[in-house]
Specification:
This protein is mainly α. The protein has 18 helices and no strands. The longest helix has 41 residues, at 68-108. InterPro entries: Chr_Tranpt_l_chain (IPR014047), Chromate_transpt (IPR003370).
Length: 403
């Protein structure tokens, strides 16, 4: 028996936590960069799984709604140390940025949201989301068919900016993709067996996790309707958001903006400043939820709201990973699912484009000086490829001086 197989479950869980904590402190650059960091750490350095198994996990997490990089980490942690390891991997990767954004939100309540540094962060959000739209569009909205679907989705979002519009568009686009995309247009990857997943029968069987995922989508809105409290509202909004975000962390922006800003939880300035600040920290962009929760109240109450928001937005990821990953080698071969995802991804590009136009552009660009500042930031970000934390510092500093 190998030395590794003799290690206790607790020792493996602790190992997963410390490895993921290191990644949570150093993984800048967004989901695509995170996947590169993960491969270096988990596949190359620690050899916890093979390249093929890692690619299989990445394929699943690109398919599911939710934060792809966090879901990959959860899957690797599960593969290494069981479901407790999945939680340890998520906690280590998420904790640093969640704590930072929570403390930033609590601190910002004691500062003026009219400060120039806040406006500088809003202008940075213009650049960050523009890059996200461009990068996703080059991959997910290529060709006349997908590009048109993205543009129509953007137009519908602008004409009908309601909370349910993004979810409705995603559903319709998935149906269109299923009906119109040819089977030979979608790729099918080979599968690899993942260690431990088939033998890890503790807790609930996979189908019960999927049932719980769907049941909570019904139960939380009903609870919120009858309870009508801030706690029930936070759980409902953030669980629903985590359940319907396709295409990466940036897509959380339109769903949360519809709920948080139009629901009068935060002003547009507070929301966009927090989104800009979220670019400065490593780890998943979904920890933006910690900032929003922390901004809803002061002191320990705000901290509690922040933790609740983070837990609610990531809960769907756990339920989906535990429910789908054991079946993934078979599920991803179904042509209708792969075809539907083509439509979903194109619609996601359009949804994000619409939010970039309104409220980001409409509320951030007030005059020519703002536009000039955005162009300079775009040169630094896309041309010189400065790290996100440097862009945040420059945006906040020069924003305070100039505006």
């Amino acid at each position: 028996m190998s030395h590794d197989s003799k290690r206790s479950g607790f020792a493996k869980m602790a190992e997963v936590f410390w490895a993921s904590l290191k990644l949570g402190l150093t993984s800048f650059g967004g989901p695509v960069a995170h996947l590169g960091y993960f491969r270096d750490e988990y596949v190359v350095r620690r050899k916890w799984l093979t390249d093929q198994a890692y690619a299989d996990i990445v394929a699943l997490c690109q398919f599911l709604p939710g934060p792809a990089s966090s879901q990959v980490g959860i899957s690797v942690g599960w593969s290494r140390a069981g479901k407790a390891g999945a939680f340890a991997a998520w906690l280590g990767f998420t904790l640093p940025s969640a704590l930072f954004l929570m403390m930033a939100a609590l601190w910002m309540q004691n500062s003026s949201v009219q400060g120039g540094w806040i406006h500088g962060l809003k202008l940075l959000a213009v650049v960050i989301v523009a890059q996200a739209v461009w990068g996703m569009g080059k991959t997910l909205a290529t060709g006349a068919y997908r590009f048109s679907l993205a543009m129509v989705s953007a137009a519908v979002m602008l004409l009908f900016p309601e909370a349910f519009t993004p979810i409705l568009l995603i559903g319709i686009a998935g149906l269109i993709g299923w009906l119109t995309v040819k089977t030979e247009e979608v790729k099918q990857q080979d599968s690899a067996e993942l260690p431990l997943l088939q033998s890890d029968k503790r807790w609930l069987p996979p189908w019960l996790y999927l049932g719980l995922f769907g049941g909570l989508l019904i139960a939380f809105p009903m609870w919120n309707r009858f309870a009508d409290s801030m706690i029930s509202s936070i759980v409902d909004v953030f669980y629903r958001t985590g359940s319907f975000v396709f295409g990466g962390g940036h897509v959380v922006l339109p769903l949360l903006e519809n709920e948080v800003v139009k629901g009068n939880w935060l002003t547009s300035d507070q929301f966009l400043a927090g989104y800009g600040l979220a670019q400065a920290v490593p780890g998943p962009l979904f920890t933006f939820s910690s900032y929003i929760g922390g901004a809803l109240d002061s002191g320990w109450t705000g901290a509690g709201y922040a933790m609740l928001a983070v837990a609610a937005i990531f809960l769907p990821s756990f339920l989906l990973i535990f429910g789908v990953l054991p079946y993934w080698s078979k599920v991803k071969k179904i042509p209708s699912i792969r075809k539907g995802l083509v439509g979903v991804n194109a619609a996601v590009v359009g949804i994000l484009l619409a939010v970039w136009i309104d409220p980001i552009l409409t509320s951030s660009l007030r005059h020519n000086e703002d536009a000039a500042f955005v162009l300079i930031l775009l040169a630094l970000a896309a041309g010189w490829k400065l790290p996100p934390w440097v862009l945040v510092v420059l945006s906040a500093g020069f924003g305070q001086l100039l505006f």
